[in-house]
Amino acid sequence: MKKTYWIVIGVAALGLLCGTLWDVQVSQLIYTPGSPFGEFMAVAAMCPIFVLIPIAAGLLFGALLYQFDQMKNISRILGVLVEVFGVYVIYVTTKGHLGSRHLHGLPFEGLVIIQIACFLLAAALGAFASRKYPKQVLVAALIGVVAICGSRFVLDNIKNLWGRQRFWTMDNIEAQFTPWYAPQFPSAERRAEMGDLIKSFPSGHSLGAMSVLWFSLFPSFLGLCKKNEKAWTNVLTFCALGFWVLTIISRVMLGEHFLSDVSMSGILFLLVFSAMLAGSRRFSEHLYQSEFAQAEAENLDA
């Protein structure tokens, strides 16, 4: 794991510790209902949730389309299964936000058009970049689908189990507040009655903002960035982390989440993302047949 990721996990863990001790106090201190900054970030931080999954799935689709014949059988099967999983999560995420207040006025039809456009553009990029950097494209796409879809899938299930009420809805904090480490296991009736209002832990916006970190893998297969890959990777990493910090501040300001909610989301995504990065090098060695690997090496040398 990169040193930067360890530092961020440490910061997020410190935030979780502070939230464990002072969740209510922090929320009371910075709670600013109707904050223009908070409302702007509420919309901006939704963009990754809606577009990163179709981008990751599209990139994988384009890579599979271009490289299918050259991959080993097990890699083909795995790639197709992961692709199906990505498309499934796109469907669940879109359907789950039908009529949601998180759409902030965006028509559902418009959301679908945006997702289809992201998928198709990413598929074109995956196929085009695979001509010169096939392994890098496929590995990045697999990491994106598994890390983004997988962490989102886990987060949504945690939300349903924990049933934590949002700060802004509380009129009796002593009776309604529950610490993050105490899941409520709400009944189906209560979930149907309260809906999104008891899905404070963990934060979907925070996880979506941290998911932007996936873009830091793109310089490995974009010819425009390849010459200064390390510099581009660092810039994209710090931009993603800056976006995450702004998002977590805005979510607490609006009372949508507690400090522990946004901290746990960052930890969740980083652990999944880092685990995928650590395993990607070993996995990539088995992606291709030997003759294709040799052809790839010749292309890179040229």
Topology:
Blueprint: H1 3-30, H2 36-44, H3 46-67, H4 73-96, H5 108-129, H6 134-162, H7 173-176, H8 188-194, H9 204-211, H10 223-226, H11 229-253, H12 259-284, H13 290-301
Describe the structure.
With 302 residues, the protein is mainly alpha-helical. The chain has helices at residues 3-30, 36-44, 46-67, 73-96, 108-129, 134-162, 173-176, 188-194, 204-211, 223-226, 229-253, 259-284, 290-301.
Summed up, the helix count is: 13
Rg, Cα atoms, Å: 20 Å
pLDDT < 50 stretches: 289-295
User: How confident is the prediction overall: mean pLDDT?
Assistant: 82
- Biggest beta sheet attributes: none
Q: How does the overall form come out from the CA principal axes?
A: globular
The percent range for helix content is: over 70%
Strand residue percentage = under 5%
Write down the secondary-structure element order: HHHHHHHHHHHHH
**Whole-Å distance between the termini?**
31 Å
Strand elements, count: 0
Task: Name the features.
73% helix; mainly alpha; 302 residues
Brief rundown of the structure:
With 302 residues, the chain is mainly alpha-helical. It is 73% helix and 0% strand.
